[in-house]
Design a protein that fits this description.
This protein folds into two domains: 11-144, no CATH class; 170-236, SH3 type barrels, CATH 2.30.30. The protein is 45% helix and 14% strand. It contains six helices and five strands, in the order αααααβββββα. A hairpin with a 3-residue loop joins β3 and β4. It is globular, with a radius of gyration of 18 Å. The protein starts with 10 loop residues before the first helix and ends with a helix. α1 runs antiparallel to α4 (86-107), α1 crosses α5 (113-137) and α2 (38-51) packs across α4 (86-107). It has helices at residues 11-32, 38-51, 65-79, 86-107, 113-137, 228-236; strands at residues 161-162, 186-190, 197-208, 212-219, 222-227. Strands 1, 2, 3, 4 and 5 form a five-stranded antiparallel sheet that branches. The protein is of the alpha+beta class and 239 residues long. Residues 134-159 are annotated as: Disordered.
C-alpha cells in the first residue's frame, strides 16, 4: 500500500476492501456465533481492545492521507492474521469493523449513487463466493443468506452491513459522530420537556444503503429502531 491514501479511493479499491472486511467478519463469526456467552464475551473483548493503544480504535482524520494509510495497514495486518484463539476472532472482527467504517464514512459517500449501490452488491457477492469456497474446502454448508438486506454482526451474509462494535464509555461518544461505540451502553437522558428522565440500552448499530446508520435500543421491555439523528438527540439530552 502507498505511504499515502488520498480521499476518496477508487471504486475498485473500495469494493475490494469492503469485501475483504466482510469476509474477515463472516469467517470469525462462523467460529463463535453459536456461543451462549457471545454478548458477554463481546463486551469483555471490546473493553480489552480499546485499552490497547496499538489497535486501530478510531477512524483517522479524512484529510490525513498518511494517517489513513497507517490505519488501513493496521486493520489489514490484524484481519490477515490466523485466528488461533477466541480473542483473535474478536480482534479480527473489531479491526475489520473499524476499517470498514472508515471506508463507509469517508470514501463511500463520495461515490455517485449508482456506484454506491453496485459496490455493496458486488462486494457482497465476492464475500459470498469466498465463504462458499471456504465452506467447500472444509466440507460444511455456508450460512444462509438473510432477507433483511444487512449482514448481522455474527449472523448470515447479506447485501449490506450491520454490526455492533467494541464497547467503550458512552461519555466518549460525540453527538457529531455516533456509531458502534455506543453498543452495550445504558443511556440516561431527559425527555423533550427537560423535566423527566428516561433510560435506554443500545443493542445494535446498523449501516445499510436504504436507511443509513440506525440504532436498535431497548426502553423498558420494548425494543425499537431509531435513526442516527434521533440518537444524536438522545445524546444531546443525556444526563
Amino acid at each position: 500500500m502507498s505511504s499515502t491514501l488520498e480521499l476518496p479511493q477508487s471504486y475498485e479499491w473500495q469494493k475490494q476492501m469492503v469485501a475483504k472486511y466482510m469476509i474477515a467478519i463472516e469467517k470469525v463469526a462462523q467460529k463463535v456465533r453459536n456461543r451462549p456467552d457471545l454478548h458477554q464475551l463481546h463486551r469483555e473483548m471490546g473493553i480489552k481492545w480499546y485499552k490497547d493503544p496499538e489497535n486501530p480504535r478510531t477512524r483517522p482524520p479524512p484529510n490525513d492521507e498518511r494517517g489513513r494509510a497507517e490505519h488501513f495497514m493496521k486493520c489489514n495486518a490484524i484481519c490477515d492474521s490466523e485466528p488461533l484463539t477466541l480473542e483473535d476472532c474478536f480482534r479480527i472482527k473489531f479491526a475489520a469493523y473499524v476499517g470498514l467504517t472508515a471506508i463507509m464514512t469517508q470514501d463511500y459517500p463520495r461515490l455517485p449513487t449508482h456506484q454506491q449501490n453496485s459496490l455493496l452488491a458486488e462486494a457482497n457477492n465476492m464475500m459470498m463466493e469466498e465463504i462458499r469456497k471456504d465452506s467447500a474446502d472444509h466440507d460444511h454448508e455456508p450460512a444462509a443468506s438473510s432477507s433483511s438486506g444487512r449482514t448481522s454482526f455474527f449472523g448470515a451474509p447479506a447485501p449490506a452491513y450491520e454490526s455492533s462494535g467494541p464497547t467503550i464509555n458512552p461519555t466518549l461518544a460525540s453527538t457529531d459522530n455516533v456509531g458502534p461505540e455506543l453498543v452495550g451502553q445504558t443511556l440516561t437522558y431527559t425527555d423533550t420537556t427537560g423535566e423527566d428522565s428516561k433510560v435506554c440500552e443500545v443493542l445494535e448499530c446498523r449501516v445499510n444503503v436504504a436507511e443509513g446508520k440506525t440504532f436498535v435500543i431497548k426502553r423498558s421491555d420494548a425494543t425499537e429502531q431509531i435513526s442516527e439523528q434521533q440518537m444524536k438527540e438522545i445524546l444531546r439530552r443525556r444526563l
